[in-house]
Amino acid sequence: MASFSFSFSGDDIEDDGAIGTTQDAAGPSSSSALSVQGLQALSIQGASLVTPTSSAAPAATAFPVPHKPQLPPQCHDLQGMLSKLPSKIAFSLLDVVLDVRAESSAPIGANGGTSAAREEPCLIRLPRRELWDVKVQLMAEEEAEDDESGNAQELAPGLGEHDVKTGIYEGGFKSWESSVDLVKVLLQPPASVSTPEPALSAVAGAVLSQDGPAHVIELGCGTALPSLALFHWACATAPSAASTTPFRRSHQLSITVADYNPSVLYLVTLPNFLLTWALQQRDANPLVQQALSFEDADGSGNVSGELELTDEVKDAFCAFLTSARVTLSFLSGGWSAAFVDLLYGLSTADAGPPPHTLVLGAETIYSPFALESFSVLLLTILQRETGTSTRAMAVVGAKKLYFGVGGSLDDFVQRMREAGVVVNELREEADGVRRGVVQCLL
Ligand SMILES: C[S@@+](CC[C@H](N)C(=O)[O-])C[C@H]1O[C@@H](n2cnc3c(N)ncnc32)[C@H](O)[C@@H]1O
């Protein structure tokens, strides 16, 4: 197996010449503000696809920016993050139509379903905090800070005009196309028409339906749609759940979500988990029902809404996590050896058998630097997992080619195979920018 190690630095970037130039550090008008064809984000408002904010010729990118250290890895405490949220958050719903169930690969039994497949399209509605609501929160926080310091400050990076701002903000506030593809690979329509909730796919079931605890790690999560989809399933199948889903989980499920920017984690990732729980639980919990309101202003089906975040609602969320045997962990900072140490520091705290681990990554290989650092990180994790769980597995979604910046799914697959990883293609999407989802097994 080929060796791999964390060795990236600003100098490496300059040395290989392929990724960046010193111009990258010069300022936003040059290449540090990256807007690239092929890096298309989903509109935060709904399901429509939008092109990036600028169609200017893509420039080379460097991350980390030379002489600028990456953000150090950091673990964020759930209570601390909850305390930073405002009293109300606004959201919209993203409908993801799940692929038709492939009976041959359906994990009959994984979720307990046995009867005939449904024919109508099955969708999962995933909530996302509205970007305008994030901006409102930040403006209020900055006003309060300015009043104290007397200095006017800028909005958080990523809430301005750029999709990615190299080394500062790496795209996590928006949802990117491949994250939707990953949702479709992880969930499938229920086996039975009498069951409203989507079921785990064979791929996800191979890890999450094993006997014993499970750990989902989403790297470069941003709005975290794939983890939200699995969290939705986890809420519906919680040992205590009052839903019609026949399958009940009995083991602990840990979900670790990681993004470069701490601001992304507390402003969108955590709120999206809260919203997913609230939407899934609203029929069973009167408190949640009272806290949620919906609006379909133009009657078009584009539903938006608000969730009141009273102390009682936050307490109910935390109590549910405990009773549902779900742990949420939030990590920020650059991918590095220290990041891996922090990640494994989380799980050594838990006694009991090692978990079966599923690593997820959507749109995390969008430049040669990102591809290399993500590959090294993934290989390190897979190698640590082999020997603990039955077989370490990752599911990675990306565009076939990131025009202008380099980075492609084929390059990633080749990099993985050279390191001895078995790579299986799970899904291809030719609609719009060509994309794929692959499974990596070590
Ligand atoms: C284009 S966004 C994709 C976000 C999300 N997965 C999606 O598909 O919607 C890329 C993500 O990778 C993370 N990322 C990229 N390079 C990173 C690095 N070197 N260290 C840590 N995170 C990184 C960013 O924070 C960002 O969330």
UniProtKB/TrEMBL annotation:
Subcellular location field: Cytoplasm; Nucleus
Domain of life: Eukaryota
Broadest EC class assigned to this enzyme: transferase
Alphabetized UniProt keyword annotations: Cytoplasm, Methyltransferase, Nucleus, S-adenosyl-L-methionine, Transferase
InterPro entries, sorted: Methyltransf_16, SAM-dependent_MTases_sf
Gene3D superfamilies, A to Z: Vaccinia Virus protein VP39 (3.40.50.150)
Keyword field contains Zinc-finger: no
EC number, UniProt record: 2.1.1.85
Transmembrane segments: none
Record has Lipid biosynthesis as a keyword: no
UniProt similarity note: Belongs to the methyltransferase superfamily. METTL18 family.
Protein name: protein-histidine N-methyltransferase
Organism: Sporothrix epigloea
